Amino acid sequence: MLNHYSTYLSTYYNFSQNNLKENSKKPSKSSPFECGFDPMKSARTPFSLQFFMIAVIFLIFDVEIALLMPIIPIMATCDLKLWLSLSTIFILILLLGLYYEWAQGALEWAN
């Protein structure tokens, strides 16, 4: 019963929203709000894809560095050979990822 009521209510709200709203075609309604002033430029400025790729690579390696932080405290509670092998594997995976990004040219900045 509750399922039918919620379906009816959501359909009613959706129908009333689409049919009762005011359609304003003013250009000021679609522009970004800047403290009540008219915007100086368009909000859709071109963005460098190379900068975006460098930022994504930085974020990925930043998270991986955060994953490296618990390695030192774990050393005190873990077997030294196990700790050394797991740490080496993790760092090798990081280095392989860095080498792959370098080989693909993601770290090269075009002129």
UniProtKB/TrEMBL annotation:
<keyword id="KW-0249">Electron transport</keyword>
<keyword id="KW-0520">NAD</keyword>
<dbReference type="GO" id="GO:0030964">
    <property type="term" value="C:NADH dehydrogenase complex"/>
</dbReference>
<keyword id="KW-0496">Mitochondrion</keyword>
<dbReference type="InterPro" id="IPR000440">
    <property type="entry name" value="NADH_UbQ/plastoQ_OxRdtase_su3"/>
</dbReference>
<keyword id="KW-0472">Membrane</keyword>
<dbReference type="GO" id="GO:0008137">
    <property type="term" value="F:NADH dehydrogenase (ubiquinone) activity"/>
</dbReference>
<keyword id="KW-0813">Transport</keyword>
<feature type="transmembrane region" description="Helical">
    <location>
        <begin position="47"/>
        <end position="68"/>
    </location>
</feature>
<comment type="function">
    <text>Core subunit of the mitochondrial membrane respiratory chain NADH dehydrogenase (Complex I) which catalyzes electron transfer from NADH through the respiratory chain, using ubiquinone as an electron acceptor. Essential for the catalytic activity of complex I.</text>
</comment>
<keyword id="KW-1278">Translocase</keyword>
<keyword id="KW-0812">Transmembrane</keyword>
<protein>
    <recommendedName>
        <fullName>NADH-ubiquinone oxidoreductase chain 3</fullName>
        <ecNumber>7.1.1.2</ecNumber>
    </recommendedName>
</protein>
<keyword id="KW-0679">Respiratory chain</keyword>
<dbReference type="GO" id="GO:0031966">
    <property type="term" value="C:mitochondrial membrane"/>
</dbReference>
<comment type="similarity">
    <text>Belongs to the complex I subunit 3 family.</text>
</comment>
<keyword id="KW-0830">Ubiquinone</keyword>
<feature type="transmembrane region" description="Helical">
    <location>
        <begin position="80"/>
        <end position="100"/>
    </location>
</feature>
<keyword id="KW-1133">Transmembrane helix</keyword>
<dbReference type="Pfam" id="PF00507">
    <property type="entry name" value="Oxidored_q4"/>
</dbReference>
<dbReference type="InterPro" id="IPR038430">
    <property type="entry name" value="NDAH_ubi_oxred_su3_sf"/>
</dbReference>
